TrEMBL record:
Gene3D superfamilies: Homeodomain-like (1.10.10.60), Tetracycline Repressor, domain 2 (1.10.357.10). Keywords: DNA-binding, Transcription, Transcription regulation. Residues 21-81 form the HTH tetR-type domain. This is DNA-binding transcriptional regulator, AcrR family. Transmembrane segments: none annotated.
Length: 200
């Protein structure tokens, strides 16, 4: 290859509905790069396809739309943030929430989370992906914090889902109103309320 000439992406053959691991990795890497460079507004399947050297039909076979692909990019980048019970629900929630907000503020995929939530309100396919796949998978760890607390007798087992909903609502309020930085000081207070023993 001549010096100074941009490398042409290697075209990768599809293997149908079953994902080719090399193609999947290339597409996700390309999606992360496009998101970092262009932001949510400039993110497109066309740009990902060109960068990954993968055909658009392959991408659409594996991800129904750009929101679906962005949710998987988000999930892959957030995988390092784990919620592990320590025996103190309030402290566990404070630590996890602080890490989560840092991710939302400090990474390209984290910063797109608000836009993804907004898009899901007007796109039925994005809403279905958010409700049926994205949320159950992303909330598994934090639900485990509440379940562990209930098993210890710290909170009533029948309140796990309601407290989890309160937790989600608190986080999403600050995400959707773009107040994550201003709301940092409210995290410990809110988490202690959500984790309080004995219920209302």
């Amino acid at each position: 290859m001549k010096a100074g000439k941009a490398a042409t992406p290697v075209r990768r053959a599809s293997i149908g509905a079953r994902r080719n691991p090399a193609s999947q990795a290339a597409i996700l890497a390309a999606a992360r790069a496009v998101l970092a460079e262009e932001g949510y507004a400039g993110f497109s399947i066309d740009a990902v396809s060109r960068r990954a050297g993968a055909g658009k039909p392959t991408i659409y076979r594996w991800w129904k739309n750009r929101a679906d692909l962005l949710m998987e990019v988000y999930a892959a980048e957030k995988a390092g943030i784990r919620a592990v019970p320590s025996g103190d629900l309030a402290q566990d929630l404070i630590a996890h929430t602080s890490a989560l907000w840092s991710f939302w503020c400090g990474t390209p995929s984290g910063r797109t989370f608000r836009a993804l939530l907004a898009e899901a309100q007007s796109d039925p396919h994005a809403l279905a992906a958010l409700r049926e796949k994205f949320l159950p998978e992303r909330l598994q760890d934090v639900r485990g914090l509440f379940t562990a607390a209930a098993a210890r007798g710290d909170i009533p087992a029948e309140e796990v889902e309601a407290r989890l909903a309160l937790y989600i609502g608190f986080n999403w309020f600050y995400v959707l109103t773009d107040q994550l930085e201003a709301g940092q000081a409210s995290i410990p207070v809110a988490m202690r309320l959500i984790a309080a023993r004995g219920g209302p």
